[in-house]
Each structure stands twice: as C-alpha cells, then as structure tokens.
Amino acid sequence: MTVxxxxxxxxxxxxxxxxxxxxxxLRIRAANAAAGDLFGVEAASLCGxxxxxxxxxPEDLVFWSEASAGLVDQIVSDTLVRDFSGRLLPVxxxxxxxxxxxxxxxxxxxxxxxxxxxxxxTRLAELRATLESTADGILVTDLSGHIRSFNHRFAGLWxxxxxxxxxxxxxxxRDWMRASVVDGADYERRLAAIQEATMLQTSDVFTLHSxxxxxxxxxxxxxxxxxxxxxxxxxxxxxxxxxxxxxxxxSHTDALTGLPNRRLLxxxxxxxxxxxxxxxxxxxxxxxxIDRFKQINDTLGLGVGDRVLLEVTDRIKxxxxxxxxxxxxxxxEFVLLVHQADAVAAEATARRVIDAMARPFTLDxxxxxxxxxxxxxxxxxxxxxxxxxxxxxxAAMHRVKEAGRASFRFHQPRGDAGRRADNSPMQIDHAMxxxxxSGQFRLHYQPxxxxxxxxxxxxxxxxxxxxxxxxxxxPAEFIPVAEESGFIIAIGDWVLAQAVxxxxxxxxNGLEMPVSINVSALQFQQPDFIDHVAxxxxxxxxxARLLELELTESILIHDxxxxxxRLQALEQLGVQMAIDDFGTGYSSLGYLKRFPIARxxxxxxxxxxxxxxxxxxxxxxAIIQLGRALNLRVIAEGVETEAQxxxxxxxxxxxxxxxxxxxxxxxxxxxxxxxRGEPMPRSVRLVHPV
Length: 690
Ligand code: C2E
Ligand code: MG
Ligand code: MG
Fold this sequence. Notes:
690 residues, alpha+beta, Beta-Lactamase, 27 helices, rod-shaped, binds magnesium ion
C-alpha cells in the first residue's frame, strides 16, 4: 500500500522529524526529510523499517508492543534515539494514533538544548564555587524578597541554625536575621527601603547582639537590563573597626600611660576656654614635672622609670575628679586640667597631688621617694588662649624647681626679672651660645665654712649669666637646656678654666682656697675630660689639691666601671672629688667605698626642714654617720638658719654652705667675706678679676 500523496506532502512541510508507522505491522510507512537528517540517512531509506528500529529504549519497546495490541494510543517523553552512525541523541518524542491504521511519530532533537543546559549547569557550578570562595556572606533574593541562594559564609556570619537552614523557610531566615540585630526595628526599616527601590545600590552597617559588626552591601541583580532580584553581601568588620578605633585612640593618647596626649589636651583646653567665654566657670591648668626623674632613669633604668610614670599617673588620677583631665606631654611632664576651680580649689588640688606622691614608691625591693613640682595658671586671669595658659603654668613650675622643687606655685605676673622663666629652651640655647662667645658668663663663689672653726675652707663656683634681653637667667633654668643640647661641654670647659685661674690668682696672693666646680654627666663622660682637667691645672700652675669636682650620684652609677676608672685617673692627678646633692640619688654603699671620694654634700632639700622634720633629721644623721664610717667629710648645702647650723654642728657634720653665711659672691665680695669671717694671713693680698 502506498501512502497517499497528501500525507507525504503534509509531513514534508514540517520542521520536526516526523514519520508514520503502520499500526498493524509497526513498519514505517513514510518519513520526512528532517527524520532522514536526524538519523543521518536518506528519508526514503527509513520506509519499511520497524518502528522499534528507530526508538529502541525499553520504554519505546513496551509502548509499541502495547500499541500494536490496541492498549495505548500515545506517548510523549524525553528519550534517546540512536542515529545510524551509532550516536545517541536526546530528543522529545511524541507518538499518537492518527485515524485507525497509523501512528504519527514526531521527534525534536534536544542536543542543542541539552548542550546549553549542560553549559548552564557548569556555569552555575562555577558561580557557586565562586560564591563559596568569597570571604563575604552572600544572599541572593528575587524581587519580592524570596531567597534564591546563599553561601555558607552567609549562614556562618549570621549563625543561622541548622534547622532554619534545613527548612528552607524564607520567613524563618528573615526573622532570625532581624532578631540577631541589636536594633531590629531599624534593620527592618532599612531593609524595606532597599526592597522598595529596585535599582538601589547601597551599603550600611549594623551591630549584632553577639557584638559583631556587619557591613552590608547590596546591588540589584539584572538580566538584559531588567532587575530580577538583589544580591546582598555581608562582611564582618568588627576587627577592622576595632583596629581603626585603636588607631584613633592612639592618636589621642599617650602610649605608655593611656592618658590623653598633647593633641587631646589641646582640644579639651579649647573646649574649656569656649565654655569659660560663654560665662562658664573658671578653670586651672597645672603643669606637673617629676623632680629628678632623669636620675631615676639613669640609675634604676628605663623600665623602672616607666613604672614610676605609671604609678605617678595613678596617684594623680586618684587626686582628681573624673571630669578633670590628666594628660602626659612626654617624659616626666604631665598637665592637669581642673574644671570649676578658683584659686582655693586649685591650691587644694595641687596639695592633694603633692600629698599623694608623699607615700614611698616601692618597686620590687627598692623603695624611694618621688616628688613633683607644679605650676598653676588660672583661666581667665592668666590668659585667654591655651598657649598663654600653658606657658604661664610651665613658667610657674620652673620657679618651683628653682626654689627647691617638691611644691607648687601660681603664675605671678612679674616685671623684667620675672620674664626669664617664660623663655623657651630654644631662645635660651641661642642666647647661651652668644653669651659664651661675648663673655657674658661669670663665676660666683659660695663660701664653705668649717662648722667647728667657723673658717671659710672652700668655695663652690656657681655660674651666673645676665643676658641683655632675658635678664638674669638662673643656672637651674639654662644648665638643663645646655645639658640637653650638649652645649654644656663648652660651658663646662669655660667654668673649669675660669675657676682654676681664679684659684691660682688667689693662691698667688697668698690665699689657698680650694675651689669646687660642678661637673655635668656629659662633660664627665667626654673621652678627653681628664686631659682637659690636667691641662687647665698645668696652664694655671695650680696644685691639683685646690680643685674639687662635684659629681652627682647618677653620673657615678651610670657605667660604674667606667666612672671608677676616670675617678682613679683624677685621683692620680691629685684632684678632689665630692658627691653633690647627696641623698637624692640611689648611691650604693658598695661604690661609695670603692670610689676615691673625699666629700659628701647633703642635698639642701634635707636641710630645708631641719631641725623640725623628724625624717629629715634621721636622714641627715644617717648621712653624717655614713660619712664617718667611710672616712668622708660631710658638707651641708643650703643652710639658711642658725637652728640648722646648730643642729648640723651638734650632729657632727663637718662643714656647711648656705645663705646663712653667704650666697654665691663675685670674687671681690668673696674675698671680702673671707677677710671678715676669720682674720686672714697677713700675706694675703686680694686681687682683681682674672
Ligand atoms: P648645686 O650644685 O646644688 O648648687 C647649689 C645651689 O644652691 C646654687 O644654686 C646655690 O646658689 C643655691 N644655694 C646655696 N645656698 C643656698 C641656700 O642657703 N638656700 C637656697 N635656697 N639655695 C642655696 P644655683 O647657683 O642656682 O645653681 C643651681 C644648680 O645649677 C647647681 O646646684 C648646679 O647643679 C647647677 N650649676 C650651677 N653652676 C654650674 C656650673 O658651673 N656647671 C654645672 N654643670 N652646673 C652648674
Ligand atoms: Mg654643686
Ligand atoms: Mg647641690
């Protein structure tokens, strides 16, 4: 039987592969060109073949057997066919009975679609791998907010419980997220705003109850320019924030003590000034400097120095109210900003701080005393800028130092002589260099008196400087600046030469007067120091026994072995050595015994409150006993009253110097005082400046 032409014509016109199967014989009756293409043969060659030759899956075999029995009429499914070269092709195949004797089979080749699907799957797998490999938590939603996907990091950042994840319940995930955020209502509001604006790109930050801080970045997800959803990425910025907060904090605080630094202090002063200008309360600014802190560092080491600074910090803080500020400007310099403080309150605060320092400091096994000097400026009386107030408080602090430390002082407007304390170190350094070049330095000599005989037995050379602009500048002010800049070496050389010349001149005139000079650490450590001393003596033909060097304890403790060598070389020369400001440093008996020292000079801070202060009495007695035991002479400095002199005399002290007898005098006045103190040998003829 031949197929009616119209049928062939009909199937030839179809794009899909189509063939007709005889319902009785299950043989192919006709096939179109597309069917030939699908199997890779001429369409005509398909005719006469069995239907099961072309579709040979078990599903098809079952179908054709049931179809031939009249049990089924149609089948539609995705299946496979094998072309004539043996290749398997994915197809969608539909078979339907048409009329009585025929089945129409259509097959759509799905190879291209399948390839596209596979490509898509690969892409998706790649995308998922990318998602999982990012450090951020990613959540993808559709336009209505339904969750389409998220990565593990997302689940981790939000600590989503397994059971919420397992349920794949959008509402549960959203509820969990909202409940995790500290301000859930605000979170919800912001999320709604994001969802409302489909094309919005934005980022924000929120804090979770766990304390973690998340940054959220969101962008619309588009295909072909149309938004189809939204991608959220979440990043944990807790550590980053903490680090930047720390950086911020560091830029405002002192690293050692954690106190506000200069910058933060400046802000606080500006604020206090602004408040004061609007009719707020007066406040006080105090500059606090630890006395002899350099010695603590030099003798006990920087580690102990740091611990002292921390202890001082604690004690200052404990003496102030919470609203007040303590700042550390560096080194041993602190600034206290005391709010709502008139003079009475400021004084009370300064006293509290000084009292707080009075308790001994005990670090490990060492106990010692730390004192401080405080200068106070008041707003608005002492200035209306932070600079003015700081400068004045600082100047007042320096006046405390000059006057013997361990106290406080208010800024006092002063005349010409007073201006000196306001000078900056730079000004002083500059002026000092000119002073040396133009011969403005002078030496004054303070008489030293034997307590038993009342005779002047020595002279301490003390440098004096009257600058044409700065006025009289105290050595307590410029010597530290010179030590800092190294200029002390030049000054020290000048003092040495000048003092030796003066002693030689006196001697030439029949006055054998030992002269003591103060030697700074830096000067003592110069490699050629001993040669300088020897040269000076030789140049003036002065016997070495008439020169004494005053050294401080810190010079001797620092590099004790080197110091011992130098001291021995100086001893060889015949020069005398004394320890100045004795009692303020940290001498050990060990080196006092070993070092060739002739005298101890008791620091004037221990003399000041004699004979009433029982602890000073005990200290001075102990030093005198120590001197006896080590066979050293003991001289007391800063003796101002007869009661002090009497006490020292009775305690067995050898010598004294101080205003009671005379301050440091120019050489002419010195000669006069020596003459009046005790009758001088007839041969003595006093001379004029050298
Ligand atoms: P210093 O060596 O302890 O000198 C004693 C200081 O006490 C001197 O202060 C002196 O004028 C002062 N003084 C003496 N008697 C009394 C008194 O009875 N009461 C009071 N309150 N003070 C008294 P000055 O001259 O201001 O010197 C201060 C410090 O400057 C000296 O302390 C010394 O360390 C240093 N200095 C002075 N001249 C020189 C020098 O030529 N070279 C070096 N390197 N340092 C010097
Ligand atoms: Mg001295
Ligand atoms: Mg002294």
